[in-house]
Amino acid sequence: MSKHSAPPAAAFAVTACRGPQGCEHRALDPGDLPQRLAEGLEAMGLAAGLARLLGRPPKRHEQFTVSVSCCPNACSRPQIADVGLIAAQRPKADPARCTRCGACQDACREQAVVLLPSGQLDAIDEGSCLACGACIAACPTGALSPGRSGWRVQLGGRLGRHPRLAEELPGLHSADQAVEYTLRAARYFLEHARPGQRLGDLVAKVGAKAVAGVKK
Ligand code: SF4
Ligand code: SF4
Ligand code: SF4
């Protein structure tokens, strides 16, 4: 894992999985997303705002945490961060190009690739697909190719005395949108939190969409 944080280091932490180093499982290349998140949080004055809110510099467990995972394996534990970003790559099916090799079924851990009894590609079961992109990489003919992609945005995860998993915003989002929602959530936290509260307390009260300023 790599960490990107800015002075004062205790105010926030942006953690990324091994995706930026080229992990073979990554669904998307994050590019400079972790750096952009850290720079954005620094520029918005999160460190000073957190110190104002608490009346002192934050302790480690009071850090605002952002976690970036480049596939649904979620190695950096985005579900328990204040903001968690998970890369998603949905496959597009073109059954006419399928040669019935079966590689996609071997690659898919969710049994989401639907083949006909003949072995021919039929469809992707969207309800089961986790958008990891593994079947696309496995398919030798292009019958499965990259479809919709983007970042899942989860808000308000935490551990501690009252642990909770983060709540996910609907849809997939561009890297720009992921940065924007992260900064909006941090601003909402500074404006509405009481000392001792986490973003998860606010998400539990008003929902992830309200915290991120998502209208519909
Ligand atoms: S989350 Fe996925 S891309 Fe990131 S290190 Fe884990 S397996 Fe690799
Ligand atoms: S993207 Fe991943 S989960 Fe979805 S069908 Fe392909 S291998 Fe299965
Ligand atoms: S990997 Fe591609 S060619 Fe092979 S069965 Fe699956 S869709 Fe067809």
What does this structure look like?
This protein is of the alpha/beta class. The chain has two domains: 2-87 and 149-212, 2-Layer Sandwich (Sulfite Reductase Hemoprotein, domain 1); 90-147, Alpha-Beta Plaits (2-Layer Sandwich). It is built from seven helices and eight strands. The strands form two sheets. The protein has a six-stranded mixed beta sheet. It has a two-stranded antiparallel ribbon with strand order 5-6. It is elongated, with a radius of gyration of 19 Å. The structure holds iron/sulfur cluster (3 copies). One iron/sulfur cluster is lined by residues 91, 107-108, 110, 112-113, 124, 129-135.
Tally of helical runs: 7
* CATH topology call of the largest domain: Sulfite Reductase Hemoprotein, domain 1
In whole angstroms, the N-to-C terminal distance is 35 Å
* Range of strand content: 15-25%
The major beta sheet can be summarized as: 6 strands, mixed
CATH class membership of the largest domain = Alpha Beta
Number of domains: 2
General shape: elongated
Give the C-alpha Rg: 19 Å
**The CATH superfamily title of the largest domain:** Sulfite Reductase Hemoprotein, domain 1
CATH architecture of the largest domain: 2-Layer Sandwich
Give the SSE order as H and E letters: EEHHEEHEEHEEHHH
Strand order of the largest sheet: 1-2-3-4-7-8
- Low-pLDDT stretches are none
Percent helix range:
25-40%
